[in-house]
């Protein structure tokens, strides 16, 4: 990839599963937009399939997943898995919500790069994204 | 505006509307409410003797895994003398999917108990006489179905439905605004809400047919004024919808109940409850012409504000919950749920749940705040805040009226974007350090290791889907099919759907199947993109 033009980072924020707590997802979508990224807020009550499909179609660099119902261990890895199978292995997947610390390890092993807990400042998330983008092969 | 030398901040502001807080308040800052507790407009309390007669109900919201586990927990509580239950349903039941639906994967038994059919409901209450307890059910889009199951289960126990006591949340408007467990579009949803209210008014006179909720609006990021305004605006929409069905205000309004959050800003929150009571009483009396004081009394449940719980230094949350509970009690709530200190980490552990309940008991038994009614009434600052919140909420309601009411304001996305704006402003204030959250952006410590957390047994999903499979084999499927046809016909008509739903659940049709029948008639709602 050439480094002559700075490409705007494209982020997809989505809520997999049935959880309706969308305050965090919406606030982060808005915050990342204010940080200069292009943000697509896909909404809630989505299957991992719908999220992966949208991520590929929208050609995003980052997928941010939010879940507060406790269903993250099943849902987040499934999104990563589908992305890999659809040619989106370069997409950085991050997550947030009510996620016990001990679940961060299995999530990381499954390809969720980082889990941000409650109380994380948005600039910290933006910085992490900027520093950890993966290159498209 | 002069700034006193030596003050620790350049300016002090309320969180209700950002108005400046004065150094000291004097009588000229606004008249104190001159009514007595138990008198219109009920600013000081709906009952003349406050908690001197009966304490508020300590109603802890609980439910997890399968009906067996939850039933065991309820039986234990019942044995301990607890007669007030508050059922948490898992998300599939709240959104009309059976436990074996693909979207339910990973969610079964997580945020509450899994109820798919009347069989589950019967087992949930096994050994607990529904005639003798009061039950609050947090259920909205599927409220008519779940209430039908509750009535059918009670009938099977031999209970007289007209004696049943409890509450069904049944507040769909705030689902579009904040909580997001809607299924159908606002139009047909309002019809289902009023079907429940009308049925309860006729057949379940001791049942609260709706719990109009500001809690979730606050949790989604609103200010205190917005919480009062949007909740009461929704209340107005429900009252109007009932009047439009030809019902008289004093026939149904006495069974309308409310649900608010309690935040940590102690005096603002006490003022909020007083302002909400006064404003609702005026609306019901002046706008809708009620003559019955019971219709005008704003009765409400409170839950401490879950959003304020921090993952960092979780024990600090015990203090937050204590302050919030004091606000609820000094504000005059009818029932209270206290959150557990570990809920920013996971579902609560038993120890944390116990501390939460003990917090209420200490306030009730040791603090003395429940010994006189409206103990802070007459405080110059509190009375000024009460006036300020009432006025701010009144202006919002006027604006919503001009837009054509709450339903239209929600359809236009007005209410949602007002809340999103407040939520983002709060986050920016926290990120910049302007708003302090102890342990998060000040007085921070290195993250501790894993605290003890609660987990739902992963075998629950398999157990529940197997139960469902057995049910589908054992029941009379021809009867189920016939009943579901009847549901569709009734949904397409103007008839109250409750009697048909009660017949239908008795065939052991599942809530997912019944929801699907309704989806065929009503369609499904998708949230408009508002970012």
List keywords for this structure.
heterodimer; A: 137 residues; alpha/beta; 5 helices; 39% helix; B: 531 residues; TIM Barrel; five-stranded parallel sheet; four-stranded parallel sheet; 20 helices
Can you walk me through this structure?
- Chain A is α/β, with parallel strands linked by helices.
- Chain A has helices at residues 23-34, 48-57, 72-85, 104-109, 122-132, and strands at residues 10-16, 38-46, 62-67, 92-97, 114-116.
- Chain A has one domain (10-132): Rossmann fold (3-Layer(aba) Sandwich).
- Chain A is globular, with a radius of gyration of 14 Å.
- Chain A starts with 9 loop residues before the first strand and ends in a 5-residue tail after the last helix.
- The mean pLDDT of chain A is 93.
- Chain B has 531 residues and is α/β, with parallel strands linked by helices.
- Chain B has one domain (40-432): TIM Barrel (Alpha-Beta Barrel).
- Chain B is 47% helix and 7% strand.
- In chain B, strands 1-9-8-7-6 form a five-stranded parallel beta sheet.
- The relative contact order of chain B is 0.14.
- Chains A and B meet through helix 1, strand 2 and helix 3 of A and helix 2 and helix 16 of B.
The main pleated sheet of chain B reads as: 5 strands, parallel
| Count of strand segments of chain B | 9
Integer average pLDDT of chain B = 94
Q: Number of helix segments of chain A?
A: 5
CATH topology label of chain B: TIM Barrel
Q: CATH homologous superfamily name of chain A?
A: Cobalamin-binding domain
In short:
The complex is a heterodimer of chains A (137) and B (531). Chain A contains five helices and five strands, in the order βαβαβαβαβα.
Q: Helix and strand layout, with pairings?
A:
The complex is a heterodimer of chains A (137) and B (531).
Chain A: E1 10-16, H1 23-34, E2 38-46, H2 48-57, E3 62-67, H3 72-85, E4 92-97, H4 104-109, E5 114-116, H5 122-132
Parallel strand pairs in A: 1-2, 1-3, 3-4, 4-5
Helix pairs in contact in A: 2-3
Chain B: E1 57-58, H1 67-79, E2 84-87, H2 91-94, H3 118-124, E3 134-137, H4 143-156, E4 165-168, H5 173-179, H6 186-203, E5 207-208, E6 210-213, H7 215-219, H8 224-244, H9 249-252, E7 256-262, H10 266-287, H11 293-296, E8 300-304, H12 316-331, E9 335-337, H13 350-365, H14 380-403, H15 406-411, H16 414-432, H17 460-474, H18 477-492, H19 498-505, H20 511-522
Parallel strand pairs in B: 1-9, 2-3, 3-4, 4-5, 6-7, 7-8, 8-9
Helix pairs in contact in B: 1-3, 4-19, 8-10, 8-14, 10-12, 10-14, 12-13, 18-19, 18-20
